[in-house]
DNA sequence: CTCAAGCATAAGTGAGGCTTGGAGCCCGGG
DNA sequence: CCCGGGCTCCAAGCCTCACTTATGCTTGAG
């Protein structure tokens, strides 16, 4: 087995014509060079150098080895440089998956900052709702997943014993114990009602006030959360419309077809027309997090993406504070 | 510094998808694989593998490394194979230099046998007389030199003290102490005289009988030897012609222009016309040897060439015995 | 002849790799 | 529900290997 280190020394010897000069060039002592050449000759089983008094000449085998060494060492340094570029954030692609309202607010800000901080890095973005996005993460189809969870459901999975398993499908898709969970921001749920609604003058409204309203619900998880909260308030919401598309929800409310409860973030990039927001009691929050695999969290591009997501989230919540 | 050994292991891990399987493939234990991958990740400074419960996946950096590994390892094995081919006599060129009468007899037989024994090896042949051929050997312009020396001149160089230095030029060109000297055969000097010469009836003639003859001499070294021998016999030869070309010498003798003393080997491949050989007294021999550098003697192609030269010389002298 | 330079060798030291043995984890079968 | 098999990581011990310093030898130049 020829070692690359030996080839490097051999090349230096061939270039300088002497062991001592090669040693100086390589930054080691002359016996080290002498020993390495001896080892290389032993491993190849044939003399590579002929020591003739004055000069050091190559045998044919040595010449062949030096000839190959160029390509091999070039390949090695190319590999090192490419890996270093990825590790040094001068290259590399991170595959991000996000849910819709995240990809329209947090993600653009984060990716713009990432590109500014590390030109050369590339991000591919795919949209998927949390159960599916976590699945993609686990299957290696993405590197970072933006997801959210509603408060009180943090410990949706207690090891194995308890209740768990709300949907037969997900199995452990909602179990994030084995993932790196990076909290980004706490998103508040707000009520959205038509401007001409009877309660549109109030700033804060108990959710029980909406017991008899027609509801427009969002994605499955949000709908489930809505039903839970309403049940706690003592009624079952009458859901007339359900859509993943938040702009559509806002449009429906603006058209006076019902009321909705939706995350503040979903309103960030949309200007509701014909609708206004009200604070609902009890206050409900969802936590937006970035997820990744433990090993991936140590990959520089992934770590940088997480950092930029967190920074964007900070900026976002700071802006909302005003 | 990325080591080729690590790349080999990484490639096995990527191919098999597990450390244990890679270890089995590589013939080592699993912790060895685990440690090597850890070392590789540390030397590159970035994670290369992500261990996700079931399967082992590559990070982008790991993928880049595996991609480069193919070329690097291919280059390494190509280098190993080329060197092995040279070492195993399946390839390689040996540069041979010989004096004329050697290259017409010994050399063809030896090279034919070499090619038969080791197809793939190539030999390049250049003609040069001994002082120059030894110089070429020392300067790296050839690998094996066929040369000859006259008896009594074996120790032409006693370390440094004595007389030495016959020609100011050669300096150490006649000093073979630092060379590998492989004796091939002892070549006897024979007299060559015209068929109508007064002594052509004799089988053995004292050289003193030729004191008044016209002489035709060969190469400078042979001429010098001739002069020495004649001086010992008490006369100075009258040299009317001198040429390196033995066939020309033979032709001149055949034409009755004089007598000559020349090595038997020079007559091996020439049928003298109009001349016949006689044994001269005192008997003079020259020793034909193959020379090479000590380091070169360990090169397989060179060693094989020396062996075939020796074998050819044995066949030649065995044939001459009849 | 003396001096400088270069290579080879020997001995000592240190790092690093490999192995064995054990623990934790996940999966599938009884 | 438990349990065996397979996988990985961790720790400890051993051993090999590479580098260093120090020394001797040879060669070429002044």
TrEMBL record, chains A, B:
InterPro entries per the UniProt record, alphabetical: LysR_HTH_N (IPR000847), LysR_subst-bd (IPR005119), WH-like_DNA-bd_sf (IPR036388), WH_DNA-bd_sf (IPR036390)
Record carries keyword DNA-binding: yes
CDD domains: PBP2_LTTR_like_6
SUPFAM superfamilies: Periplasmic binding protein-like II, Winged helix' DNA-binding domain
Alphabetical list of Pfam families matching this protein: HTH_1, LysR_substrate
Domain of life per record: Bacteria
Keyword annotations: DNA-binding, Transcription, Transcription regulation
Residue ranges occupied by any HTH lysR-type domain in the UniProt entry: 2-59
Gene3D superfamilies: Periplasmic binding protein-like II, Winged helix-like DNA-binding domain superfamily/Winged helix DNA-binding domain
The keyword Ligase is assigned to this record: no
Family: Belongs to the LysR transcriptional regulatory family.
Name of this protein: LysR family transcriptional regulator
Organism: Streptomyces polyasparticus
